[in-house]
Amino acid sequence: MTTHLGIHGSVERIFPPSLLRSRLVDGDDAPDADADLTVSVVDDDFDGIDALVTFGYDPAVLDSDVEWIHVVRAGYDEFPVETLRDDGISLTNSTGLHGASVGETTVGYFLQFARGLHRYRSDQREKEWNPPAWDETFTLEGETVCVVGLGTLGRGIARRADALGMSVVGVRRTPTPVDHVETRYGPADLHEAVEDARFVVLAVPLTDDTEGMFGAVELDAMREDAYLVNVARGPVADQSALVSALRDDAIAGAALDVFEEEPLPEESPLWAFENVVVTPHASAARSDYPDRIAELVGENVRRFERGESLANQVV
Ligand code: NAD
């Protein structure tokens, strides 16, 4: 069987599609000799393509022979899962790859706020020497973080926070223990979970259940000296409620990697807060990402050709 794999141009949003093509054709993770694979970079012409690696969703796949779509991100909220299921198209995602990158970025946010690093960087630009007031800094050791969602991201964050001497509580749907997490709460007890935490991190997928799950009431349940971190998806937090909470000093600040609209529009008030760190959906970035994707896609090409179930299968 010959598999014709297409790499969609939208992958360019993360890395050059041609790089993934070369990894899949000649790299260490190239599917072995029994896989008869042709790989091309495609835009909107899916003629003859059996499997598609993509960043974004293109409805033209529904009128094509594509049998399997791999999305190069963990989140697949843009993909019409039920329609794909009805059309017999398999969907796989890239969860499992972002624990270290997002985990490290998240403790980076914690350290910026605790040690005041974000302020010194702004002062440097102005050539200003502004030592902190005696009560403006704190250490992470002994502080509590509440991680909402304990999948790949949440576990990566919990492990690193624990290593820094922080106490970790978590919110998850099932009560099973998770390494590095001292106390677990169900989603119904979200308020209780966040009320003692110095940091609250959102690390859940965007679904009907999680859209807007962190709004005015949840922000109000947080301590006034606490920080919100969103590395999940923008709509998981209510952005206008967050702006109000920041304006009213109801929380101490926020680190945001994801937004209701991306890129964050120029007129957004979020740009201007000194106590808000804005990053451009960058928390998972790493230069070896194409190799990680090649490994995952290479394994799934082998399974696809053998008719086996795929790794990271959503439908
Ligand atoms: P994952 O599937 O490994 O984990 C998600 C976890 O959230 C699962 O344990 C699931 O049970 C849990 N969950 C779902 N609904 C919940 C709810 N209502 N309450 C509590 N827990 C709930 O996925 P992941 O790799 O950890 O990624 C999570 C999400 O983060 C992705 O779907 C994506 O949207 C986002 N993400 C963002 C970036 C970035 O660059 N900022 C990178 C990777 C992932």
Q: Write the CATH architecture name of the largest domain.
A: 3-Layer(aba) Sandwich
Q: What's the arrangement of strands in the largest beta sheet?
A: 8-7-6-9-10-11-12
Poorly predicted sequence stretches spanning 5 or more consecutive residues: none
User: Which CATH C-level class of the largest domain is it?
Assistant: Alpha Beta
| Strand proportion | 15-25%
Intertermini distance:
23 Å
Measured as a percent range, the helix fraction is: 25-40%
Number of helices: 9
Q: What is the averaged pLDDT score?
A: 96
What's the total count of β strands? 12
CATH topology of the largest domain: Rossmann fold
Q: Label the structural class.
A: alpha/beta
Indicate the overall shape: elongated
CATH superfamily of the largest domain: NAD(P)-binding Rossmann-like Domain
Describe the biggest sheet?
7 strands, parallel
Order of helices and strands: EHEEEHEHHEHEEHEHEHEEH
Kindly provide the radius of gyration, computed on alpha-carbon positions and rounded to a whole number of angstroms.
21 Å
How many structural units, i.e. domains? 2
Ligand catalogue: nicotinamide-adenine-dinucleotide
List the helices and strands and how they pair.
Blueprint: E1 2-8, H1 17-26, E2 36-42, E3 51-54, E4 68-71, H2 81-86, E5 90-92, H3 99-115, H4 117-125, E6 144-148, H5 152-163, E7 167-171, E8 183-185, H6 190-194, E9 199-202, H7 216-221, E10 227-230, H8 239-247, E11 253-256, E12 276-278, H9 289-306
Parallel strand pairs: 1-2, 1-3, 3-4, 4-5, 6-7, 6-9, 7-8, 9-10, 10-11, 11-12
Helix pairs in contact: 1-9, 3-5
The protein binds nicotinamide-adenine-dinucleotide.
Nicotinamide-adenine-dinucleotide is lined by residues 74-75, 95, 98, 102, 148-154, 171-173, 187, 203-207, 209-210, 231-233, 257-258, 281, 283-284.
